[in-house]
Amino acid sequence: MKAITLISEKEDGSMNKVENITDYLNKKKIDPDKFVRAELIHGKKIEIVNSHDGGTVINGVDGLITTSDCVLGVTVADCLPVYISSKRAVGILHAGWKSLKRGIIEEAIGKITEIGERKEDLEVFIGPSIQSCHFEVKDDLVEKFSDYDNCFENRDDKIYLNLQKVAKEKLNSNGVKNVKISKRCTYCDDRLFSYRRDRKINNMLAVIKPI
Ligand SMILES: [Zn+2]
Q1: What is the Å distance from ligand 1's center to 57 Cα?
Q2: CA pseudo-torsion sign 114, 119, 120, 121
Q3: How many domains does the chain have?
């Protein structure tokens, strides 16, 4: 399914306020009755939704997939918004390091192939998120991602993790080759919210809309 990918910016307000979500959907001419949002838990669970789910919030999942004309959304503020499209389906994931570690990428590929889509047809876009210029990590994460040695960078006695590269490697090694990564770092880009930079829970809405 052809789809457009969107992300709100600071000027749209923080998406932890429902009224800002409503305003953003209006601004983007998205029918609220077709919009499905995931209420996140930093896990790996993904729900397949259909037109009956339009206008609802799905609790306890970090990803949504649909073959209907539903518009899907997750909130992010440094975590990776992962937009997926294939021949007949679209999906969106909220993938922070916890979800990546827990296997949300593998789960998404499993779910979308279960409904008949082919890995070769998947197109993935990793949207604005905190990048290795700013994602400093400590030993605990070095340990957790020890299988991804080549995704760490050392600068000035500090260690930085390239989570986008981790996600890409997971996709590639599971047969998904078409992966694009946004150059926008949420910490660097003043128009975006960053949890690390702002130390506040303000977030953006990432949306995938079938067209
Ligand atoms: Zn940065």
Answers
A1: 31
A2: positive
A3: 1
